[in-house]
């Protein structure tokens, strides 16, 4: 929004605040003009001039005083200028036609709105007294008429005080509401900024986690296969060709996954296969890339599984197998997918070197311990609290499972292998039928 648009937005509510007041001023002015022209007077020309001066007074008010309405009771130069002009024009109007004094019903409240209380009282006395003095000096005014004029003046002053106080109260309330609305808009802007920042942080975390669970593990596989390839080029050409094919396949998968991460899509492995099929392929690839034996077991009838749950379980399996490859030194790995009525579970069990999960999670020892811990989630050591290495192992798995409303259990001991079990809830039939 430009500065001019912002100023216009602020002016509109202020105009609304003063609309009723301006209507009152217009009615008082029109009423005074009608009375001055309707009641017979010694000279109709004088009455016409008097009525014209009353109208000119309000034109001057519109030109000088109204722009200062934002600074109500601010004793501004516009207010003092308007007072001087009003005293002169109003005095002439009253001398020409006494009924012009009805304009005081508009003039006095205007002065109370434009000046602070003390200055307003002085201004009202001046605009009432000066015409009275000139009438007494220039015209023959009887004592009863003087008393009547004084009484009328007192009544008008009292009315002006009451009316202006009400107007000031309404204006103050409007200003307070406007201030609260401005504060609300500021808070909304702060909330929007925080939400955007939080969203950006969540997106960074998502990308980092996806990169760790897919790209980093794929590159690790390529490096491992490359090392094996060096020794096979001269001694075992068939194995070398097989590993070259695996390197190409893994690189292609990494490229596909990187594109899907950017597009926030589901893993490529789940694009044209069920979770069980994707896990079976993952285990077969693991077995082809390592010397360890690996077996996939499906327990129970496959139930409809939300895509988000499938993604979490696939990522957990990828993380576990990647760390078995890097750290466990395992001879055999079992991957089991189990379905129950209300939950689905993934278990990854290896017979590797194992580690102490309590020590790892309590110490948060970063990557160094991760290199030594081994097990199905040896990166639990490097990643559980791994600020040192920036790992996303056990910490990343727990975060994924927690977000899906599930639980993650880690069982391991030094020299005794490692077991990881992730359990996630499945929606009931009633929940699936609910639109």
UniProtKB/TrEMBL annotation:
Cofactor(s) this protein requires: [4Fe-4S] cluster
A GO term, aspect molecular function: protein dimerization activity
Keyword Iron: yes
Cellular localization per UniProt: Cytoplasm
Positions of transmembrane segments: 21-39, 45-65, 77-99, 111-134, 146-164
One Pfam short name: HATPase_c
Keywords tagged on the record: 4Fe-4S, Cytoplasm, Iron, Iron-sulfur, Kinase, Membrane, Metal-binding, Transferase, Transmembrane, Transmembrane helix, Two-component regulatory system
Predominant location category: cytoplasm
Enzyme class, spelled out: transferase
Reaction it catalyzes: ATP + protein L-histidine = ADP + protein N-phospho-L-histidine
Domain Histidine kinase: 224-428
EC number: 2.7.13.3
InterPro entries given in the database record: HATPase_C_sf, HATPase_dom, His_kinase_dom, Sensor_HK_TwoCompSys, Sig_transdc_His_kin-like_C, Sig_transdc_His_kin_sub3_dim/P, Sig_transdc_His_kinase_ChrS
Cellular component annotations (GO), alphabetically ordered: cytoplasm; membrane
Annotated function: Member of the two-component regulatory system NreB/NreC involved in the control of dissimilatory nitrate/nitrite reduction in response to oxygen. NreB functions as a direct oxygen sensor histidine kinase which is autophosphorylated, in the absence of oxygen, probably at the conserved histidine residue, and transfers its phosphate group probably to a conserved aspartate residue of NreC. NreB/NreC activates the expression of the nitrate (narGHJI) and nitrite (nir) reductase operons, as well as the putative nitrate transporter gene narT.
PANTHER family recorded: NITRATE/NITRITE SENSOR PROTEIN NARX-RELATED (PTHR24421), SENSORY TRANSDUCTION HISTIDINE KINASE (PTHR24421:SF62)
UniProt name for this protein: Oxygen sensor histidine kinase NreB
Biological source species: Humibacter ginsenosidimutans
């Amino acid at each position: 929004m430009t500065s001019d648009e912002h100023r216009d937005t602020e002016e509109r509510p202020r105009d609304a605040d003063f609309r009723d007041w301006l209507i009152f001023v217009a009615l008082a002015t029109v009423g005074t003009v009608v009375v001055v022209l309707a009641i017979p007077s010694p000279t109709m020309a004088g009455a016409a001039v008097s009525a014209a001066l009353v109208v000119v007074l309000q034109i001057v008010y519109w030109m000088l005083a109204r722009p200062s309405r934002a600074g109500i009771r601010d004793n501004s130069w516009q207010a003092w200028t308007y007072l001087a002009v009003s005293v002169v024009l109003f005095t002439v109007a009253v001398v020409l036609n006494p009924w012009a004094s009805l304009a005081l019903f508009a003039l006095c409240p205007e002065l109370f709105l434009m000046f602070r209380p003390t200055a307003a009282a002085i201004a009202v006395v001046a605009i009432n007294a000066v015409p009275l003095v000139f009438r007494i000096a220039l015209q023959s005014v009887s004592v009863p008429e003087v008393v009547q004029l004084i009484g009328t003046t007192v009544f008008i002053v009292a009315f002006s005080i009451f009316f202006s106080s009400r107007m000031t109260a309404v204006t103050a309330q409007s200003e307070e509401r406007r201030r609260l609305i401005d504060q609300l808009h500021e808070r909304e802007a702060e909330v929007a900024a925080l939400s955007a920042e939080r969203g950006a942080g969540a997106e960074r975390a998502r990308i980092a986690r996806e990169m760790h669970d897919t790209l980093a593990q794929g590159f690790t596989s390529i490096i491992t296969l490359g090392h094996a390839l060096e020794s096979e080029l001269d001694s075992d050409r068939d194995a070398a060709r097989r590993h070259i094919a695996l390197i190409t396949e893994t690189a292609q998968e990494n490229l596909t996954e990187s594109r899907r991460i950017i597009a926030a899509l589901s893993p490529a492995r789940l694009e044209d296969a069920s979770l069980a099929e994707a896990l079976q392929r993952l285990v077969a690839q693991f077995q082809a890339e390592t010397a360890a034996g690996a077996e996939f077991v499906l327990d129970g009838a496959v139930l409809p599984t939300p895509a988000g749950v499938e993604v979490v379980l696939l990522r957990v399996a990828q993380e576990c197998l990647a760390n078995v490859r890097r750290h466990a030194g395992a001879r055999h790995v079992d991957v089991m997918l189990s379905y129950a009525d209300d939950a689905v579970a993934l278990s990854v069990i290896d017979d590797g070197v194992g580690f102490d999960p309590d020590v790892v999670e309590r110490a948060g020892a970063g990557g160094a311990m991760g290199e030594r811990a081994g097990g199905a989630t040896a990166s639990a050591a490097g990643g559980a609290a791994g600020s040192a290495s920036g790992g996303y192992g056990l910490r990343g798995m727990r975060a994924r499972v927690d977000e899906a409303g599930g639980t993650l259990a880690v069982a391991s001991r030094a020299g005794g292998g490692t077991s990881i079990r992730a359990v996630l809830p499945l929606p009931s039939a009633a929940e699936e039928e609910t639109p």
